[in-house]
Write a structure and sequence with these properties.
mainly alpha
């Protein structure tokens, strides 16, 4: 019976995913991101509206989709950027947001509005970098100076909250959480030396001969790397998104053979199936009833995402980007969802987070994905003709 439910759920989900490009084309004037169609479609087919799909039957596939989302985010990130001004600026912006998040959450806790201090404080510092990537890529916003600023800003907003979750919300306690995090980094470091093996003639020969044949060697190696780090992260009691993000960073270093061919295959398998499954599942799992009973909580968290995570960009990038670009940076860095889902689950499992706050936090993330990137993309058409200040020269 569960198999039948799972197949039915997958059927309606694939229909939503297949229709998304056509819906976006029909609404081309408002530049609707496909992610929005996925989430809204998930809500419609989910158990709280039409009831055509059951998210519990495809949990594993949704987690794999989340893994691919973070794999591609890690792969897109060039660590060399953090040696430059753009990387340092991104770290400072996140630290400012973290300080604001602690202060704001402290006030909300004192007022009795929130009970789970740490998960909500971390949630207010997140950026849905993986979710933003296809939107930014489709609208040519990763090229040029702005792309060099948004890439590290988004990556920091995704990676550092993951580290905070591993340390402060570990089921083993903070000390053991830190130890397991260091062990995870050690495992990733060992895997990062694999480029030495990929240059050996025998390995290169087998990889290149099979990468576009039925053996699909490079793709299989990549998927094996992803699942290896997902399993290690899970065994260490860490969130699987950390393993996926590290897998992407490692893959960028040692991907063998035709890299461009591998990238197109990862896009096909990730964006073609697994990533839409994750977003549609997020929509199906959204607790509409709890949000409807206390809509003010969703609005509070939505405003706080913009004020805490996004607003500092308006001041910190004032010498680097023109005003419209800073507004774009504010909107994009305030976009959050995947980690909010994880934080809500952690808060509910420990009993520290109020159910209505968990639903509102995830709902605020969904709303941010629906609204903020679309506004940033609309502004991009105007920014394209604006000359950039000299301070954004590459390598400064």
């Amino acid at each position: 019976m569960d198999v039948q439910k799972g197949l039915t759920t997958l059927l309606v989900m694939t229909i939503v995913a297949a229709l998304a490009p056509f819906i976006c084309a029909l609404l081309a004037k408002i530049r609707l991101p496909q992610v929005v169609v996925f989430i809204v479609g998930g809500v419609i087919i989910g158990p709280q509206v039409l009831g055509w799909g059951d998210p519990d039957t495809i949990t594993l596939l949704a987690n794999v989709g989340l893994g691919f989302l973070f794999l591609l985010a890690g792969y897109e990130l060039d660590l060399e950027l953090f040696r430059e001004h753009v990387g340092r600026r991104a770290i400072v912006a996140w630290l400012v947001a973290a300080g604001l998040a602690v202060a704001v959450t402290g006030v909300l806790s004192a007022l009795g509005f929130v009970r789970a201090f740490v998960p909500i404080a971390i949630g207010l510092t997140t950026t849905a970098f993986g979710a933003l990537l296809p939107i930014l890529r489709d609208n040519d916003m990763l090229d040029g100076a702005f792309g060099r600023y948004i890439l590290p800003a988004g990556a920091v907003g995704e990676f550092l909250p993951i580290v905070a979750i591993a340390i402060f919300l570990s089921a083993k306690g903070q000390f053991l959480g830190l130890v397991t995090l260091l062990l995870m980094f050690a495992v990733a470091g060992l895997l990062a030396v694999l480029p030495r093996w990929t240059t050996r003639p025998g390995f290169v020969k087998i990889s290149r001969e099979g990468e576009n044949a039925t053996s699909q060697t490079t793709l299989r190696l990549t998927v094996a790397l992803l699942f290896a780090l997902l399993v290690v992260a899970d065994k260490f009691g860490l969130d699987i998104v950390l393993g996926a993000f590290l897998a992407g960073i490692i893959l960028r270093r040692w991907a063998p053979g035709d890299v461009h061919s591998l990238e197109s295959k990862l896009d096909a398998i990730g964006y073609g199936f697994f990533i839409p499954v994750f977003f549609i599942t997020s929509g199906m799992s959204l607790d509409i009833k709890s949000i409807a009973e206390a809509p003010q909580r969703l609005l509070v968290f939505f405003v706080l995402l913009i004020a805490v995570r996004g607003l500092p960009a308006m001041f910190l990038y004032r010498h680097d980007l023109v005003v419209r670009q800073r507004v774009q940076m504010m909107l994009l860095t305030a976009t959050a969802l995947p980690l909010l889902v994880a934080l809500a689950e952690i808060g509910l499992s420990t009993g520290n987070m109020l159910p209505e706050n968990a639903a509102a936090l995830v709902g605020a993330g969904v709303l941010s994905v629906i609204l903020l990137p679309g506004i940033a993309v609309a502004l991009n058409r105007k920014v394209a003709s604006v000359p950039l200040p000299e301070s954004v020269v590459v390598g400064e």
